[in-house]
Amino acid sequence: MVQKRAKAAKAEAEAEAEPKRRGRPRAYEPEVALAKALDLFRKDGFAATSLDDLSAATGMNRPSLYGAFGDKRELYIKSHERYRADARAAMADIFRTELPIKKRLQRIFAVALDIYLSGDAGPRGCFTVMTAASEAIADPQIRAMVREGFIELDKAFAACFRIAKEKGELPASADPVVLAQLASATIHTIAIRARAQVPRKELEGIVKGAIEVVVRG
Question: Which of 25, 44, 100, 184 has its CA 20 to 30 A from that of 17?
Fold first, then answer.
């Protein structure tokens, strides 16, 4: 009897000496879950996407979703940030590499069309443009986020046109800022039309005409 008590006491002491596990490990990968949420928001928009939809898409229950990303609005904002990061990465090399302005623009618009026309359930357009026409109307924070995206794109295009002007590819009278805004406006146009399932060939015709206009300065 004494031996049994001694063994039990020893076992309890060893158990107390072991480091305690802090909760259950995450059964999901945050980046994967965020990508799935982004896909859903791009397809259906904010209002039409329910928490149950997000839970089903990510494989996470509501408390887990809230713990990882916050409420639906916060998840939408994080999804938009992820979208911009992905788009930035897809375009980075083209904006950095020095190419003749016409060829550079052709490559930029081609990548943009790849993004806008993607989607298993059909073309999804540009998440930023879609947000500008919906959630940005009533939400100041989201509106500021969208404008930041527009300004970032304008600046990237302006840098391309500035280099082209310095190389003599554009006339001395060309205004890189105005040309950048025209190029961005073309991006927005093809994004909206892509969402409306306008065929790629037609969108490429718009791009071709826009490039011819801006390269003339």
Answer: 25
Cα separation, 214 vs 210, whole angstroms: 6
What is the structure's pLDDT at 27? Answer: 53
pLDDT digits (tens, 9 = 90+) for 27-56: 568 889 999 999 999 999 999 999 999 999
For the chain, which ranges sit under pLDDT 70? Answer: 1-28, 217
Q: How far apart are CA 18 and CA 33, in angstroms?
A: 33
Give the integer Cα–Cα distance in Å for 152 and 88. Answer: 10
What residues contact 13, with CB distance under 8 A and at least 6 apart? none
